[in-house]
Amino acid sequence: ERLAENVRLLYVALTRARNRCYFAWGDFTNGTTAPAWLFAPPPASGVAPMDALSGAAASATSASRKAAVDALAAAVPSITVSAPPVPDGAVWDPPAGAAPGLAPRTATAVVRRDWRVASFSWLAADAMDEAPDRDAVVPEDPPSPVPPVPPVPPEPGSIHAFPRGTAAGTCLHQVFEQIDFTRTDPAELPRVVRTALDQHGLDRSFAPAVEDMVTRTLSVPFEGAGAGLRLGDVALSERLTELEFCFPLRRTGPEGLRAVLARHGASLPSGFPAASERLRFDPVEGVLRGFIDLVFRHEGRWWIVDWKSNWLGPRAEDYTPGAVDAAMAQHLYPLQYLLYTVALDRWLALRVPGHDLARDLGGVRYLFLRGLDPRRPESGVFAARLDPALIRDLGALLLAPTEGGGR
Asked: What pTM was computed for the model?
């Protein structure tokens, strides 16, 4: 799939030119790239495509690569192949006197290093990835010098034995993205779960555990939401999956961010203000970007949900409110949901006439999927207390005004 996507991107790039396109290719590239597949494809065999391409790349030479594109040029009149005018590995200089009176200009422009696309991952851990969050590891506090208690092995085949890491998190996110929470089709969940496990290279023996986890997740009551709200009651028409936001970002540094958080510390989880001292990003401006796992509307109020596949222990009893609060502070997740809330407030202000933050925003739930249990609604659930004043102050700090004067 990755190779297919790269071939598609190469096609898009090569077909954008109106008059002429120059394309350099040779031994300086990875042998498993899209050009290698198109220009010098491996012979048909029963070997997996990437393995076959890797094998062909291992024996390829500059001469064989040039022969491949020469054959292409012979079949397509609009393609011309030119070899570099120097042997492999040499550096070409124009011959003396070839360009009298010409000299390269001196670059005087200043390239700004503080303008960038920022995200929670970048602010919290200086991570470059702006993709949807999939529970990748964020640097943690130094380990305690006290030797840990030997872990109890999880029950085989249970959700606690389900693999950890980004691939596993992506798999579980995919399931929630693709299913109808109201379960109108009983066959949908098993089908989606099996497909997700297959696509991420995970054993199908975990399918019952994942299906049970999804069922429990959709049945957990949202305490304080009124009317016994459960995710299983949320129709497809009332939810937005992977809501992407991208807003102008004012110049911001960690000191200003910590100052706002400290001013509203009473409305934040107890361990977070101290954990926020780990923020060390360089001052930045540009664009704030992110992806919210789930936004849904219930009785006119909007809710933010984030799926967390973090492993807190081998038993459901390990997902107590205290353990969940500690994980939230350790990974700086309160900063993440504050950014999400600021973004959702801006999104609603642009789209819902008369939007009022205090009236329209229901709350935030971080659901630690391995520990959810409808019989114990507090297990594995983090419920954020949202302070409209904090959201407004944080928005004023981070987000530049939109055109037309909107918030």
From this structure: 0.73
